[in-house]
Design brief:
The structure holds two protein chains of two kinds. Chain A is α/β, with parallel strands linked by helices. Chain A has a single domain, classed as P-loop containing nucleotide triphosphate hydrolases (Rossmann fold, 3-Layer(aba) Sandwich). Chain A has ten helices and ten strands. In chain A, strands 6-7-8-3-9-10 form a six-stranded mixed sheet, sandwiched between helices. Chain A has a four-stranded antiparallel sheet with strand order 2-1-4-5, covered by helices on one side. In chain A, helix 3 runs parallel beside helix 6, helix 4 packs across helix 6 and helix 6 runs parallel beside helix 7. The radius of gyration of chain A is 18 Å and the shape is globular. The termini of chain A are far apart. Chain B has a single domain, classed as MetI-like (MetI-like fold). Chain B is 77% helix and 1% strand. Chain B has eleven helices and two strands; from the N terminus they run ααββααααααααα. Classes of the chains: A alpha/beta, B mainly alpha.
Chain lengths: 255, 282
């Protein structure tokens, strides 16, 4: 099954249907390792659908059907023979609304390890600390790991969700509008974090915020009505878009 | 000015309805307590009935009701929760599931005496369990299954989808997600269903009429294959049979009071468990 593909992830000829509705049309996208790829576009244009495809979260939606291939390190992850749980360990996801479990801060992070059959307590403890540090949350919570995670602020909860994701040891991180429900200061912290994480992870982020896309990403893709209209270097997209619709969107004429 | 008057009338009517409901509820409790309190004594709670049900106690009936309630729950709770999990978490959404759900809800409307006949045919005769605690528990269990299933389903549906997604996105399997995230979060709601069903089971008379209950037992049932006395049925027996209606009526009210207190006590303990769970999860 392995093909010679250099990109960390690559989507090939993706068509996606919700029942009879075609939500994605012939998408081809190549995601380079250790970069941030931003996906922008108006609401309802298939951005979230696309990103959820990258770790097979689309399978939770009844009636969803996909054609095409998604390669991760050259391996087709849409292959039904591959366990979705295995894919999701390598391709982690952070959601629009922070969704910590109603458990303690510690348990939130150890959960991902224990469901993957890690039993060594010392290892789990070390991983929890390491993940919280990586997510820039350690200093704020180190004295209250036994507190319920729901007591944290929205921004802290979202960083906890990032830490939870990191603990499992992913290689790719998907962010589905991670700052949509956060204030500007929390948003700033998450953006800073993404730039830091880029060194060790490959990041894909869906965002409504074009400034955010410009600030954090190396590559940007513009979706419109289920099509990938333009895909290229972020700098080029924002300064010299090739497509008229891209230009209209980034200059704020619609969307 | 006029709209204020109509508001006042509106609120007045609502207040009256509430007051009437409270009145009936209050008078039920008042009558049972006033008429039943006289019968209560240590002997009443611990002794067996004597002199053809005109003296002694009702301990075997209390024990019988406890056994039947526990037995029914032990059978119906796991089955109902499992059923709800399957319907809510596993089965493909669609018309078949809707039909199943509708049938379950309709089952809840079947008169309880019909369940009694069904229990007689299936458990007493076909499975040859005889008139026994086992037959009665199973019959009562089936009676409350719809209640438990729909309560459990509501509780499962109330668990935010975002928690399921979070768990699955970490590489957890469907089953791990249900076991470690969905069920613990649905537990308070499921327990509420269990509490409601306790009240239903303990008070039912018709389903145990042919399957478990007996007028009179000298002692306590020795195994689940023995017949048992039960409080609601004992009340029925006291009021319809026997030769000393005056003495028996007093005992019947005593039984009613005990039944009320029993249901209250079981419910209270379930509510305490639920609160503990909720404190942990909120």
């Amino acid at each position: 099954m392995r093909e010679k593909i250099k990109a960390k992830m690559e989507a090939r000829d993706i068509n996606f249907y919700y029942g009879a509705v075609r939500a994605l049309k012939n998408i081809n996208m190549s995601i380079t390792g250790n970069t941030v790829t931003a996906i922008i576009g108006p609401s309802g244009c298939g951005k979230s659908t696309f990103i959820r495809l990258l770790n097979r979260m689309h399978e939770l939606v009844p009636g969803a059907r996909v054609e095409g291939r998604v390669y991760l390190d050259g391996k087709d992850i849409l292959d039904p023979a591959i366990d979705a749980a295995d894919v999701r360990r390598i391709v982690g996801m952070v959601f629009q609304k922070p969704n910590p479990f109603p458990k303690t801060i510690f348990e939130n992070i150890s959960y991902g390890l224990t469901v993957n059959n890690v039993r060594d307590k010392d290892y789990i403890e070390a991983k929890v600390v390491e993940s919280l540090k990586k997510a820039a949350l350690w200093d704020e919570v180190k004295d209250r790991l036994k507190d319920n995670a729901l007591r944290l602020s929205g921004g802290q909860q979202q960083r906890l969700c990032i830490a939870r994701c990191l603990a499992v040891g992913p290689e790719v991180l998907l962010f589905d509008e991670p700052c949509a429900s956060l204030d500007p200061i929390s948003t700033g912290k998450i953006e800073e974090l993404m730039l830091e994480l880029k060194k060790n992870y490959t990041i894909v982020i869906v965002t409504h915020n074009m400034q955010q896309a410009a600030r954090v990403s190396d590559t940007t893709g513009f979706f419109l009505l289920g099509e990938l209209i333009e895909f290229g270097k972020t700098q080029d997209i924002f300064t010299a878009p090739k497509n008229k619709q891209t230009e209209a969107y980034i200059t704020g004429r619609f969307g | 000015m006029k709209k204020h008057i109509s508001q006042r009338i509106g609120f007045g009517v609502l207040w009256l309805c509430m007051a009437a409901t409270l009145f009936f509820l209050g008078s039920i409790i008042y009558f049972i307590v006033v008429r039943g309190a006289g019968a209560l004594s240590w002997q009443f709670l611990t002794d067996v009935p004597r002199r053809s049900m005109t003296a002694g106690g009702v301990a075997p009936a209390i024990a019988g009701t406890l056994y039947l309630t526990m037995g029914a729950l032990a059978f119906a709770l796991p089955l109902g929760i499992a059923c709800a999990i399957y319907l809510n978490e596993y089965s493909p959404k669609g018309s078949v599931v809707n039909i199943i759900r509708m049938s379950i809800n309709n089952l809840a409307g079947v008169p309880s005496v019909v369940f009694g006949l069904f229990g007689l045919a299936l458990f007493v005769k076909f499975f040859k369990f005889g008139v026994s605690i086992l037959s009665g528990s199973l019959t009562l269990g089936i009676l409350v299954l719809p209640l438990i299933i729909s309560a459990a389903q509501e509780a499962l549906m109330a668990v935010p989808q975002s928690l399921r997604e979070a768990s699955l996105a970490l590489g957890a399997t469907h089953w791990q997600t249900i076991k470690r995230i969905v069920l613990p979060n649905a537990l308070p709601g499921i327990l509420t269903g269990a509490i409601l069903s306790i009240g239903r089971i303990a008070g039912e008379t018709a389903p145990i009429l042919f399957t478990a209950a007996t007028f009179y037992n000298r002692g306590f049932p020795k195994s689940i294959f023995d017949e048992a006395m039960a409080l609601p049925y004992h009340i029925y027996a006291l009021m319809t049979e026997g030769t000393h209606p005056d003495k028996q009526t007093a005992i019947a009210y005593g039984c009613a009071l005990i039944l009320l207190l029993l249901v209250l006590a079981i419910s209270a303990s379930a509510i305490i468990i639920r609160q503990r769970q909720r404190r942990y999860h909120a």
